[in-house]
Amino acid sequence: MTIDLANETDVAVDLDEIHDCARYAMDAMFVHPNVELSIRIIDEAAMETLHVQWMDLEGPTDVMSFPMDELTPGREGALSDEGMLGDIVLCPTVAAAQASAAGHDTMEELLLLTVHGVLHLLGHDHAEAEERLEMFELQRTILLTYLASRGRSVEAGTIRIAPPSGRE
């Protein structure tokens, strides 16, 4: 897998951890090893511009996903197709505010948003209640198992499974 990362802000972000989490999420979803992903860390002004342009919603948001080849998850024994998965855009200052409100650290929020972005790129959505439950339970499972694989103990109740109201 090729994961291209760039932090276009002055906020210190552990790009190695975001890379590892994205790879873990793609492995969990049986994504082909010849898939490409781009992750950009941007400031609130740039995120607001994207949010207005693509969602027609004012204000910055935490994460946006832009699928390219409309890949879908694979399954055990049958990986996804090869191709360009797409782009994930994260805003660390919005993530920091959400992390504070949720009672966990900013990096955990950025990891949650990374998993969320990967799932969106693979066709998951949360517009309908049933989709929402499926996507957010999957998101939670991937994030908690990723953190456990890194030797990080996170109380399951501190990782939210739904975006703050009014988001997305």
UniProtKB/TrEMBL annotation:
Q: Which GO terms describe its biological process?
A: rRNA processing
This entry's Enzyme Commission designation comes to 3.1.-.-
Function noted in UniProt: Single strand-specific metallo-endoribonuclease involved in late-stage 70S ribosome quality control and in maturation of the 3' terminus of the 16S rRNA.
Q: Quote the protein name from its UniProt record.
A: Endoribonuclease YbeY
GO terms (molecular function) for this protein are:
metalloendopeptidase activity; RNA endonuclease activity; zinc ion binding
Q: Which GO terms describe its cellular component?
A: cytoplasm
Under InterPro entries, the record lists: MetalPrtase_cat_dom_sf_prd, YbeY, YbeY_CS
Enzyme class name? hydrolase
Q: Which positions bind Zn(2+)?
A: H116, H120, H126
Query: Which superkingdom, per the lineage?
Result: Bacteria
Which cofactor is essential here? Zn(2+)
Which family is it part of?
Answer: Belongs to the endoribonuclease YbeY family.
Q: Where in the cell is it found?
A: Cytoplasm
Annotated cofactor note: Binds 1 zinc ion.
Q: Name one Pfam family in it.
A: YbeY
Keywords assigned by UniProt, alphabetized: Cytoplasm, Endonuclease, Hydrolase, Metal-binding, Nuclease, Ribosome biogenesis, rRNA processing, Zinc
Is Metal-binding among the key words of this record? yes
Q: SUPFAM superfamilies this protein is in?
A: Metalloproteases ('zincins'), catalytic domain
Q: Which HAMAP family match?
A: Endoribonucl_YbeY
